[in-house]
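Annotators were shown the component list below and the corresponding predicted structure, then asked to write short factual statements about the assembly.
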Amino acid sequence: MRTLEGTRCGILLTFATLLLVLLINGNAVNYVHPRFQWGLTLSCAVLFLLAAVRIGRLWNGHHHSYAQPQRRPWLACFIMILPLCFAVLPDSTLGSYMVEMKEKDPAATQSTTNTAPPSTASAVVQAWDPVIKDEEFTTVMMMLYNKPEDYTDQEIEYVGFVYHQEDFPEDSFVAARFAIICCAADAQVAGLLCHFPEAATLKKDQWVRIKGRIQTRMYQSRVIPVVEVSMVQMVKPPLNPYVY
Amino acid sequence: MNTFRQSSFRPGLKLLVLIFLLFLLSTGLHANIVLSYHQEILSLRTLFLSLVLESLPFLLLGSVISALLEVLVSEDTIARLLPRKTLPGLLVAALLGLVFPLCECGIVLIAGRLARKRVPLHLVTTFMLSVPLINPLVILSTGMAFPDSPVAFFRIAGALGVAVLTGYLIKCILDGQPMLNASSIQACGCGHHHLPAAIHGRAGESCLNNPGILVKMEAILMHSGEEFLSMGSYFVIGAFLASLLQVSIPRDILTGVGQGSSSILVMMAMAFGLSLCSNADAFVARSFASTFSSGSIMAFLIYGAMIDLKNSFMLFGQFKARYVITLMGLVTLLVLIYGVSVNLWGGI
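Structure shown to annotators:
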């Protein structure tokens, strides 16, 4: 009974520490939208409190579990340890592999990722800035896919990871980002098809800054924007891999 | 007595310290260990942890509310507040989400606690199904995802219909039968060994008769932890399976089946497997809007928020299998009918 109670305290404490670590090193954004930050902070505090009360009781020698035992208390403990085991693996984000699992048509997702109100969109149209910042990424992509013709010959520059697909032409790749609404489980792909003669030399999942001019092309019976790439620069993965 | 106590609480504390140290050690080390993990495992890890982290605050909130109900609110109080008539009762239960905007992870815990407090099962059912859908946050996000169409309205209307009807049918089918899991129906050990043991759940008393505020606080915190640990494990299984599905089954296998009459079922299966938060699923549904009929989009939006992989395990943890299976069957059937009728009506 005491071993069980001890394990349960350990689990609560470890969950709390996990949250603390993720909040301190900022890796929480790899998993959930930054607006969950306060929720995770609060959860961290509550978990420490829950653990403290239990440890206090254990220390005072209350040897019975507070409530009636569950049917298989040890099994429940082992299951709760599972996410903690995964948490110990190196930090990870989503990449090319998940693009393949999710959506094979780069054009299909674009019209969907916009979460910004239309007013922001019109603001961006008026002052086209070729350097796309992360904050405006989904809005810009939505605009580009809605009316590619309006942006022909505009300069564009942004950061994304390289994604190759079998049925793309040899000289093309997608510089992609994952757009997130709540957490990585609902991530959707966003990005532009890039025309670049040496595309095959780029490794998948390599983060690049691309620079070029927007052109249009027919793809699966619809017009999509493509980038005639003039420059590809290898960059370090951004601190926050996702856009919102 | 004293020595006995001293010697036997040690193993627990030792193990606790050991787990804690191991965890600290490994988080410190992993930055330096370079291992070539497979993409699959890393993606699985990202999705699994993101589902757990996303839901953790809501699971904790659910546990705390459940514990507050357990300790502070007596069955008598609840019985006095309950509406007498069936249909008005169901409607009130369905609209409670407008006041308590909770999402589906936390709601199962609260529903289970209410059922243990002798709230009739049909009210609990309607409450549990409607709150994740009929709440301001979800209405707002659905409206944002589909700005120029009445999808949000149809979602709310469908959710209201399905939740109330399911509650009513549950009353007809399972009325009066005990549907709580044997292990969760037991009185808690709140007697707290130096207090007179109040047996709650029977005498109509709340957990503690007349204790001080500190004892009450302790009871609330202990109950919250208990609830979090036991229901959390069910949640973790569901979240793990959901992320396993996402990394192992390419989505276009499903979307390929997309068209035709089976599309509603396909979208419901997808909603079940993806286990998205009801705040986020409208944006994901949008990516299917061009390839799927509006009836199947509607089914996706309603079904996923009511029943999905990550909360169905929690349901099995709280309620008897018979209730959970009846509930799932009814909801599946009703959502299917709603989806078909939206399609027949000519879409949105």
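Statements collected:
1. The radius of gyration of chain A is 23 Å.
2. Confidence is low (pLDDT under 50) at residues 107-121 of chain A.
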